[in-house]
Amino acid sequence: MVASSEGGFVLGTWSGEANAADTSFQLETVAYPYIEEGKITLQDGLFGGGHILTGVTSQWVALVEGTTGRQVRVNAAGFPYVVLWQSASPTELFVCIEPWFGLPDWDGTSHEWERQPGLVRLEPGNSFSCH
User: Fold this and answer.
1) Given this model, what pLDDT does residue 13 score?
2) Which of 17, 6, 24, 4 is nearest to 117 (CA)?
3) Which of the listed residues 12, 16, 33, 102 has the most CB atoms within 10 Å of its CB?
């Protein structure tokens, strides 16, 4: 996996009780511990339920086969987040690279989409384009 990042790994944390009236939900960006010189060496179970990267500075993220150099590149230009995840099944081996604009619903939240961190809101009649 190849990517350049000035950001890190996004964590969602709560300080206090997590409920619909609580506004203490905080997104925290920490240094991504698995990247070295712009590369992440893949290993079983590395991404668990998914890793959310922020501050990706390259225009693309690539999955590169080490022995042949063959690669799959995903355009990540302009996206604030890139999510990496892989199958938990030992018989279904794959890695997924997903550029994202919003963030997932975190455990312990009110699960109201209107309060979703990273949500892109549009007024009626407006449109959104990522490129």
Assistant:
1) 42
2) 24
3) 12
